[in-house]
Amino acid sequence: MTTAPPTHLAAALRRPGYLITAWPWRALAYLVTTTPVAGVLAVGLLVIVAPLTASFRSLQWGGPPPSTPLVVFLVVAGSAVVGLAPVVGVAVAALERWRLGLVDDRPVPAPVWRGVAARWSTAAGWREAGYTVWLATVVPAAYWLVLLLVALDVMLVVSPIAAGTADDVIVAWATVDTPRQATPYAVVGVLLVPVLWYGLGLLAAAQAAVARRLLGRTGDETALREVSRSRTRLASAYENERRRIERDVHDGAQPRLTSLSLQLGLARLDVPEDSPAARPLAVAHEQARGLMVLLRQIVQGIRPQSLAELGLAGAVGELAGESTVPVTVHADLDGPLPELTETTAYFVVSEALSNVARHADASRAQVRLTRERSTLVVEISDDGHGGADPGRGTGLAGLADRVAAANGRLLLASPAGGPTLVRVELPCRP
């Protein structure tokens, strides 16, 4: 098993060697492609904000009040912006979810389309509108600041060349007139290049985090709060009952069945083979032994022994070794996991790999286990023909129910022709 590579920019920034990976270039591509989107939105908003600001400034300095046509224009245009923002936000959000893939490999679920009228009555519609306004206001201001810093660094780097072709060149806070005087500033500029690379990555990561926060959540959290609490209580009750059953089977039924099998075996030794009781006794002994195997499988199904002995990463590695499809496991887990989370993740991987072997017609698969703060992320991907559908009885519906019982969520991407990606996010707070 190897350390899992980061799946999003924020995680990549925390890794050593960030500057020599593809992530800085992905961050730069994300920022560059943001510029036209934010620019168009900013210009559209400026058409309303500029006259409004000028009118307020004029009133503040005792100037004449704004004319009636200007007031009508501002009222109509302002109302149009507020009224159309949820509709415009649909197109902007769709584009931004797609662009988010430049710096974040995790899928972003889109809200269910409920018609145009629902854009004004759902939280998702107003979150998308809020993100559109944020993209038109805060992002351009941040980009201008970063652009000034980049221009300053470029000026420091090229200062020796400029000083050799002109007199009295202003470099940041000083004036130089020879390349020798400008060399220290150029050295500082070169040393600041890695800092700027990291800064651009931080800017892109912050923007992506806001996009995921506003565009990735679906559903009304207020309406679902009680459902979530009830589901948590049910999951806790299930876990307690599972432990009780496991303890009763392991400490009660299993020893008695072992003793019964032993007594039947001893009885077979005392009964002659030609005795009428020999055959029924042998059948009873074999049935007892078979029942012991079945009971061990039941106990194993409640909580696999490999999970208790090897931990989640080791147990998943064992599942990968038993799969008929070659499976690569990447695990990046630090610290213990809650038992419910660990058990749920194990059965998710087990069921998903079983589906790959039976339905996907894949040549290889990959399992990725990562811990992102208080969330355990499990991803199972394969290169099969895709087209997985929870409604066709492939076990995905039951898998989603198991994940939901652990207060997690399951995301599925399986276009026709493949590949298929199953992503499960489970809480792992201690």
Short structural summary:
The chain is an alpha+beta fold and 430 residues long.
Largest sheet: 5 strands, mixed
Helices and strands, in order, run as: HHHHHEEHHHHEHEEHEE
Number of separate strands? 7
Terminus-to-terminus distance: 25 Å
Instruction: Estimate the helix proportion, in percent.
Output: 55-70%
Whole-number average pLDDT? 77
Report strand order across the widest sheet.
3-4-5-7-6
Strand content: 5-15%
Please tell me how large the radius of gyration is.
32 Å
Say what oligomer this is: single chain
DSSP helical segment count: 11
Structure class: alpha+beta
Low-confidence runs (pLDDT<50, min 5 residues)? 219-227
How would the global form be characterised?
elongated
* Total domain units: 3
Describe the protein in words.
This protein folds into three domains: about 200 residues, no CATH class; about 70 residues; about 120 residues, 2-Layer Sandwich (Heat Shock Protein 90). Helix 5 packs across helix 6. It contains eleven helices and seven strands. The protein has a five-stranded mixed sheet with strand order 3-4-5-7-6. Strands 1-2 form a two-stranded antiparallel sheet. Helix 10 links the parallel strand 3 and strand 4. About 0% of the residues have low confidence. With about 425 residues, the chain is an alpha+beta fold.
Q: How do the helices and strands line up, and which of them pair or pack?
A:
Layout: H1 9-13, H2 23-60, H3 68-99, H4 123-157, H5 159-165, E1 169-171, E2 174-176, H6 179-215, H7 221-270, H8 278-302, H9 305-322, E3 327-332, H10 339-360, E4 365-372, E5 375-382, H11 396-405, E6 409-413, E7 420-427
Parallel strand pairs: 3-4
Antiparallel strand pairs: 1-2, 4-5, 5-7, 6-7
Protein name: histidine kinase
Transmembrane segments: 28-50, 70-95, 141-162, 182-205
EC number: 2.7.13.3
